[in-house]
Amino acid sequence: MGKKQKVRNLKSVPARFVDDPGRRSAMTTLRLGEAAGSVRLYANIDRVKPGGRSVKYHAHSKQEEFFLILRGSGTLRLQGRRLRVKAGDFFAKPGGRGIAHQFVNDGRGVLEILDCGTNDRGDRAFYPDEG
Questions:
Q1: Model-level pTM?
Q2: Residue 16 to residue 7: CA distance in whole angstroms
Q3: Which stretch, 12-16, 103-107, 127-131, has highest mean pLDDT?
Q4: Phi and psi of 129, rounded to 5°?
Q5: β-pairing verdict for 90-93 and 125-126
Q6: Distance (Å, rounded) from C-alpha 95 to C-alpha 48?
Q7: pLDDT of 15-63, one tens digit each?
Q8: Which of 6, 30, 33, 34 is positioned for an S-S bond with 38, CB 3.0–4.6 A?
Q9: Cα–Cα distance for residue pair 129/71, rounded to 1 Å
Q10: How many CB atoms lie within 10 A of CB 74?
């Protein structure tokens, strides 16, 4: 039997820094799913500083993802397109299709994103900007 489940609070989850090339620590992540003991799914809150990027522009071989903009505004790079996003906007990225994506905070405040997805064994990341 696994460890005993319990209710957690956002304030109890430490922020982890994610490096963005050229702008160290432009994004912090709260790994909610991990803190709650999730195994097959992850749930994060990503906070991107103004002028920063969420992560490198990338695609996955297997991972399915869902994103909800909780706060702020910015640009979503998605399969070669640039789409404006703001609080309340959301989208899903089906697994196994290699859909490249990245958030860019070109707004004035913090861009906060609920980022959920699957932890798929053997998932590989691809970086189109780097060939």
A1: 0.85
A2: 20
A3: 103-107
A4: -65, -20
A5: unpaired
A6: 24
A7: 876 655 555 558 889 999 998 889 999 999 999 999 999 988 999 999 9
A8: 33
A9: 27
A10: 24
